[in-house]
Amino acid sequence: MSEKIDFSQIRFLIVDPNPLSTELLYDILRMLGAIAIRKVTDSNKALAVIKAGEVDVMITEWIVEPLSGIELIDTVRNTMHSPNRMLPIIMLTANSEPEYVIEARDRGVTEFLAKPFTVDSLYRRLVSVIARPRSFVNAGTYFGPDRRRRQVPHGGRNRRAD
Question: Response regulatory domain location, by residue (predicted)?
Answer without folding.
Answer: 11-130
